[in-house]
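wait is this the right file?? whatever heres the structure
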């Protein structure tokens, strides 16, 4: 059985989390870190980036081991309702 990387939802999700974690670490590297008792502005983004990297690696490894494929297509009803709700919120917010 051929393994299709683009249809593996856990692998793709894990890679996305890893990419976001790397971006958070890259952005946070410009800020002073501080230490646990007196945290600097880079402390929380660095911790969050590391956590995202860890969870992304776990999810990607899970995807490689279990190889669960994406089933079906887009769920259009939730996407449509969410888009309408956001547009309605923006419209109402500008009127207040």
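ok assuming it is, sequence goes like this
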């Amino acid at each position: 059985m051929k393994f299709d990387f683009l249809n593996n939802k856990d692998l793709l999700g894990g890679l996305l989390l890893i990419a976001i974690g790397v971006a958070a670490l890259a952005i946070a590297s410009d800020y002073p870190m501080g230490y646990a008792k007196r945290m600097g502005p880079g402390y929380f983004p660095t911790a969050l980036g590391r956590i995202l990297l860890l969870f992304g690696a776990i999810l990607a490894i899970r995807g490689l081991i279990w190889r669960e494929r994406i089933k079906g297509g887009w769920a259009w009803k939730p996407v449509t309702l969410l888009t309408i709700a956001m547009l309605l919120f923006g419209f109402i917010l500008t009127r207040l």
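Helices lie at 9-28, 43-66, 76-95. so i think its the right one actually
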